[in-house]
């Protein structure tokens, strides 16, 4: 199954030797029946059609979905087109937020501040520890979305839209080493120091990235299987 990675952000230059955002997703989802192609939509490189791939994955970004960047509106149009044409979409962090915004939800900076580092999420009774790096979050879910995960400081941590779109706020693709780098490189002056210190204390928490990768792959592959059955 061919997945198009829509890149909306980039690793800091100081951490680029660990990989760029699409690299992390290809590693996360490796050996799960998926192949990949990349588009840098943040640089206005968009696919010609939502049918160019079997599914789409929207990355994280340092940008806010409510900010005035040239790629925001076209990406929202692409998301709605994919919805209309039943092409599956997965969104992570910024991707989670822009899907929600495109579908009628609301995103803003969380008044409770930043979530950073290993964080516990409740996926309908199953606990997942995943790395977080965000202050923005979905504060009002779209009508079409069902909440399928939450955290103490993030009510709408994962959303499911029928069988067409699935999005999560945390970063299953970020390993410990990259999170340590973000804390060191991007954190100072952006994130309050007590939040960074607390994240550093939790940095060795075992992560459930592989379990989340299984869920993402299953979402794509099961969606494809159902589509093939309808065409048969």
Automatic annotation (TrEMBL):
Gene3D superfamilies on file: 3.40.50.880
Keywords on record: Ligase
What is the native source organism of this protein? Pseudogemmobacter humi
Quote the EC number.
6.3.5.2
Annotated SUPFAM superfamilies: Class I glutamine amidotransferase-like
Q: Which residues form a coiled coil?
A: none
The record's top EC class is ligase
Taxonomically, the superkingdom here is: Bacteria
GO cellular component entries = cytosol
State the name under which the record lists this protein.
GMP synthase [glutamine-hydrolyzing]
Drop me one GO molecular function for this one.
GMP synthase (glutamine-hydrolyzing) activity
Q: Which Pfam families match?
A: GATase
InterPro entries, sorted = ChyE-like (IPR044992), Class_I_gatase-like (IPR029062), GATASE (IPR017926)
Boundaries of every Glutamine amidotransferase domain copy: 38-174
């Amino acid at each position: 199954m061919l997945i198009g990675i829509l890149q909306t952000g980039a690793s800091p230059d100081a951490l680029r030797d660990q990989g760029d955002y699409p690299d992390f997703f290809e590693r996360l989802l490796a050996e799960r029946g998926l192949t990949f192609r990349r588009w840098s939509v943040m640089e206005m490189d968009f696919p010609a059609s939502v049918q160019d791939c079997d599914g789409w994955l929207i990355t994280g970004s340092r940008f806010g979905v409510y900010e005035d960047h040239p790629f925001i509106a076209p990406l929202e149009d692409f998301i709605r087109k994919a919805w209309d044409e039943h092409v599956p979409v997965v969104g992570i962090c910024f991707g989670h937020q822009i899907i929600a915004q495109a579908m009628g939800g609301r995103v803003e900076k969380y008044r409770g501040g930043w979530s950073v580092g290993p964080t516990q999420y409740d996926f309908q009774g199953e606990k997942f520890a995943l790395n977080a790096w965000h202050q923005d979050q979905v504060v009002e879910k779209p009508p079409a979305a069902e909440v399928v995960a939450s955290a103490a400081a993030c009510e709408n941590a994962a959303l499911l839209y029928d069988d067409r779109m699935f999005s999560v706020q945390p970063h299953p693709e970020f390993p410990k080493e990259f999170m340590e780098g973000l804390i060191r490189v991007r954190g100072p002056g952006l994130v309050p120091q007590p939040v960074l210190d607390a994240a550093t204390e939790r940095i060795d928490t075992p992560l459930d990235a592989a379990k989340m990768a299984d869920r993402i792959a299953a979402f794509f592959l099961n969606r494809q299987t159902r589509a093939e059955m309808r065409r048969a």
